[in-house]
Write a structure and sequence with these properties.
single chain; 161 residues; alpha/beta; Dna Topoisomerase Vi A Subunit, Chain: A, domain 2; 4-stranded parallel sheet; 3-stranded antiparallel sheet
């Protein structure tokens, strides 16, 4: 399949749509071979957005926050935890805090690396969060692949979710 005009540089990458109630508001593109090319690319001039915002309306009294779209999709679709994500550890914007302020519980899923730990620490300064730390070198997706959904829910400390 040929890429859309203007998207030729993203050919051979996974297209990740940022969808809101009004439709697709942005696209990011993930490499299928990050060892030889940049892992993520975005549209020129696009501003960073919160990913998977439709889960805010689907969520009950708790929500998860992840670094990365793939981790967000894993939590939302495979583990069953409503979740939003940022496209990188340093991508949090102050107004995102207001979107999550009314939740009774906010789980921050911290990647097992220094940026992931700093991301969780940063969010804990803005919101009353419960940090769910992944093992060293792991993220939500790799943890899910190794241990499954039940393990992640147990790490959250709430078995009835």
């Amino acid at each position: 399949m040929e890429p859309d005009v203007g998207h030729e540089a993203f050919q051979g990458r996974l297209s990740i749509p940022y969808i809101t109630k009004t439709g697709v508001v942005d696209l990011r593109f993930r490499s299928l071979n990050p060892a030889v090319e940049p892992k993520y690319m975005g549209m020129t001039g696009a501003e960073t957005k919160l990913y998977n915002v439709l889960d805010i309306e689907k969520a009950g009294d708790y929500i998860g926050v992840c670094e990365g779209e793939i981790d967000t999709l894993t939590l939302s679709n495979m583990v069953g935890i409503p979740c939003v994500g940022v496209p990188g550890a340093n991508s949090w914007k102050k107004h995102y805090t207001r979107l999550l302020a009314d939740f009774e519980r906010i789980f921050v899923f911290a990647d097992g690396d220094q940026p992931g730990k700093e991301f969780a620490t940063s969010l804990s300064r803005e919101l009353p969060v419960t940090v769910v730390a992944m093992e060293d070198g792991e993220d939500v997706n790799s943890t899910y692949i190794k241990h499954g959904a039940k393990y992640i829910k147990e790490k959250m400390g709430i078995n009835e979710l």
